[in-house]
């Protein structure tokens, strides 16, 4: 499918989706969110793809929802269209691992989109923020919930109430991003991480994603039970057998998603 606001490339087992509205710092409009949902659904369903990278440009991952598109909408427009609701759900339903590779601005909906991915690798020029309060609105695709879980109440309140930006170093210190790398190495680092994940059993990687995400949805004891059952279930797979045999035989495992 031909997209106008994103660029999709599949190389080996990694699909890279690049947000591409350079004139608007990749602001998220309805077309981009629709195209992104489609591309993610395709990548999730593509047997060849084992990991997805979501990225933007050197200047902006995404500077938020498109203010021009939203500015003259009414409550009725937003409510009846469930603005970005379906697209939010589409991103969070992807079962394969998604890495956000963030350079430059990740603001408002851009920060929220990065947080919907499984982990964030940040360039050292990355800036995160939830500045919606400056526009007279609150975050709308998870920012108050996810940022609070990732960085704690005090910092989340600070970010949402003052609208200030957090640099990459603070984002790493706070647990929002998993690693910070020099801007020039961002894509190489994200691709190396994606290729590393692509070497694993696809089933195991998906089970890891489901299990970690349980931590945000349920109690500790229910989450641990879910994890244990998932662990037990892996013993029904050939990949468990291969992984353990390969360790004992001191060789690299050849997973076959069976
Ligand atoms: N929407 C639309 N256009 C934008 C946006 C945006 N969010 N951000 C930047 N642009 C455009 C600018 O209008 C400008 O366009 P033009 O050249 O035509 O005037 C171009 O991108 C370049 O921007 P600047 O000239 O402003 O570039 P600077 O380097 O001076 O500044 C900033 C960069 C600091 C990132 C600045 O552009 C900025 O503050 N942008 C807005 C950031 C913001 O407030 N984001 C939050 C938006 S609201 C939101 O995300 C809500 C999420 C929930 C939605 C889901 C609802 C259910």
Automatic annotation (TrEMBL):
GO terms for biological process: fatty acid beta-oxidation. One of its GO terms (molecular function) is 3-hydroxyacyl-CoA dehydratase activity. Keywords: Fatty acid metabolism, Lipid metabolism, Lyase. It comes from the Bacteria. Its EC number is 4.2.1.17. Coiled coil: none annotated. It catalyses: a 4-saturated-(3S)-3-hydroxyacyl-CoA = a (3E)-enoyl-CoA + H2O; a (3S)-3-hydroxyacyl-CoA = a (2E)-enoyl-CoA + H2O. PROSITE patterns: ENOYL_COA_HYDRATASE. Could possibly oxidize fatty acids using specific components. NCBIfam families: PRK05862.1. Belongs to the enoyl-CoA hydratase/isomerase family. This is enoyl-CoA hydratase. The lineage of its organism: Bacteria, Pseudomonadati, Pseudomonadota, Alphaproteobacteria, Rhodobacterales.
């Amino acid at each position: 499918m031909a997209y106008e606001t994103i660029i999709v490339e599949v190389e080996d087992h990694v699909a890279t989706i690049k947000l591409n509205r350079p004139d608007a710092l990749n602001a998220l409009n309805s077309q981009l969110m629709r195209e992104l949902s489609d591309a993610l659904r395709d990548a999730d369903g593509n047997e060849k793809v084992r990991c997805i990278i979501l990225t933007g440009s050197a200047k902006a991952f995404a500077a938020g929802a498109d203010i021009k598109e939203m500015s003259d909408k009414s409550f009725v427009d937003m409510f009846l269209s469930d603005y970005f609701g379906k697209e939010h759900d589409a991103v969070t339903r992807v079962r394969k691992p998604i890495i956000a590779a963030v350079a430059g601005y990740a603001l408002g909906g851009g920060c929220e989109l990065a947080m919907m991915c499984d982990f964030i690798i940040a360039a050292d020029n990355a800036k995160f923020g939830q500045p919606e309060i400056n526009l007279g609105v609150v975050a709308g695709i998870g920012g108050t919930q996810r940022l609070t879980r990732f960085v704690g109440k005090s910092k989340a309140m600070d970010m949402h109430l003052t609208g200030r930006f957090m640099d990459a170093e603070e984002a790493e210190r706070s647990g929002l991003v998993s690693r910070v790398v020099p801007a020039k190495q961002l894509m190489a680092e994200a691709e190396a991480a994606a290729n590393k994940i692509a070497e694993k059993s696809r089933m195991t990687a998906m089970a890891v994603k489901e299990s970690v995400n349980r931590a945000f949805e349920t109690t500790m004891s229910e989450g641990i039970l879910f994890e244990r059952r998932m662990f037990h279930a892996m013993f029904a797979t050939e990949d468990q057998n291969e992984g353990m045999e390969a360790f004992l035989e001191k060789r690299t495992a050849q997973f076959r998603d069976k």
